[in-house]
Specification:
Number of strands: 0
CATH class: Mainly Alpha
Radius of gyration: 20 Å
Strand content: under 5%
Order of helices and strands: HHHHHHHHHHHHHHHHH
Number of helices: 17
Number of domains: 1
Structural class: mainly alpha
CATH superfamily: MFS general substrate transporter like domains
CATH topology: Growth Hormone, Chain: A
CATH architecture: Up-down Bundle
Oligomer: single chain
Shape: globular
Largest sheet: none
Helix content: over 70%
């Protein structure tokens, strides 16, 4: 006797918005459980925030260099194997972190950056191949919504397991999630057909960057995504440092990060607001709101509860950015250039971990932690200003 599965269940077994959203959610679980643990491990290993920032800068730089080869891999071994490579590396990265040595930590962090780039580039290629342009503003909030529980519970759960159970509990959870992603990806089998890139345009990485820069809409899309990512970098890496500075427990840090990510469950509502008021007006408003709350933090720095509240308010606005900030790129990139332009665009996440850490390392050599939040707030104001150039048609 055959069982007829509901249509919404069958949708998870074939390429489409729901399967992409589930893939992103599982990927998010693998990454989020380590997001707040790695800064704590780095602080324990190096002893201070400045040296930790230098380590993040160095390892992200290595990961970015490796990411330059992703378009070549996409065209030679196809998107399926690039995505498989990324998921496979995410399986083994926690075992490097578990070694508890500086060399192993640096290697694991570098491979994690490269693996994340492979997963992001591969997923974006599949999204552009299987989802119509006019549906991006609906599929992107769905993707963020599916990942909400992972980014809400994952960072806090990772810290709690690390501090209260065992570091291995966090590492094995992350590795298991990556292995689950690998199994699900091969179950859906998204390869034959539109995901295969067209004939190579013969561009090396530097030519791809020049071609990307020559297209103002792509540059604008990159800048806005970069600004959003800089904010989350500040929250995930310097909010724990703030809590440690004020002698708060690891559990309190986990609670703060969870509160900051809880608004992710409102992603569908944020997507509706983006469609209702237009991507341009919505992004401008969200950038300004996040900037206002972040810029207030240095003035309330000695009041821990108030600072935590401001971080949550800023995160609420940032969730609006998460929901629709990728739409300008997805609608603007040309099909023939997707592997190369996706590689360049995807570097916003890597460079958001590279450039701020370099800049913050300099700031922290002269000023205290207030300077990090002040600099982040000012940059969000700049992003709000540039978002005025988003075409009304989006």
């Amino acid at each position: 006797m055959s069982v007829v599965m509901p249509a919404w269940v069958r949708a998870f077994g074939r390429p489409g918005a729901r399967s992409f959203a589930l893939m992103f959610a599982i990927d998010s679980l693998a990454r989020s459980t380590l997001t707040t643990v790695i800064p704590l491990v780095a602080l324990d290993t190096l002893g201070n925030a400045r040296d930790s920032s230098i380590l993040f800068f160095a390892t992200t730089f290595v990961g970015v260099v490796l990411s330059w080869f992703i378009p070549v891999l996409v065209r030679r071994i196809r998107p399926r194997w690039v995505y498989t490579l990324g998921a496979g590396l995410m399986v083994i990265v926690p075992f490097f972190l578990a070694r508890e040595t500086l060399v192993a930590l640096a290697l694991g962090m570098s491979l994690r950056v490269f693996a994340s780039s492979c997963l992001l580039s591969g997923l974006n290629l599949y999204i552009m191949a299987y989802i119509k342009k006019q549906d991006f503003v609906r599929s992107e909030p769905l993707r963020i919504f599916f990942s909400a529980i992972c980014w809400t519970a994952g960072p806090g759960l990772g810290v709690v397991l690390y501090a209260s159970v065992s570091p291995w509990a966090t590492y094995l959870l992350s590795s298991f999630a990556a292995a689950l992603l690998l199994v699900y990806f091969w179950r859906v089998r998204m390869e034959h057909g539109p995901a295969n890139p067209p004939k190579s345009v013969g561009q090396n990485p530097l030519q791809s960057v020049r071609r990307f820069i020559a297209q103002p809409r792509l540059v604008l899309a990159w800048l806005l995504s970069f600004g959003r990512e800089v904010f989350w970098i500040t929250i995930y890496y310097y909010a724990p440092a703030y809590m440690v500075l004020n002698h708060r427990s690891d559990n309190a840090t986990a609670l703060l990060i969870t509160a900051c990510t809880l608004p992710l469950f409102l992603s569908p509502v944020m997507g509706w607001l983006g469609r209702r008021f237009g991507i341009r007006n919505f992004l401008l408003t969200c950038f300004l709101a996040a900037a206002a709350a972040t810029l207030t933090i240095p003035f309330a720095f000695d009041h821990v509860l108030l600072v935590c509240g401001l971080m949550v308010i800023a995160s609420f606005a940032a969730v609006g950015l998460d929901s629709v900030v990728g739409v300008p790129f997805l609608r603007s990139v040309r099909a023939r250039e997707r592997p190369e332009m996706t590689m360049v665009y995807g570097m916003y996440r890597d460079l958001a971990a590279l450039l701020p850490f370099a800049f913050f390392s300099i700031l922290l050599s002269v000023f205290d932690l207030r300077s990090v939040f002040a600099a982040t707030g000012l940059f969000l104001v700049y992003c709000a200003w540039t978002s005025r150039w988003i075409p009304r048609s989006m």
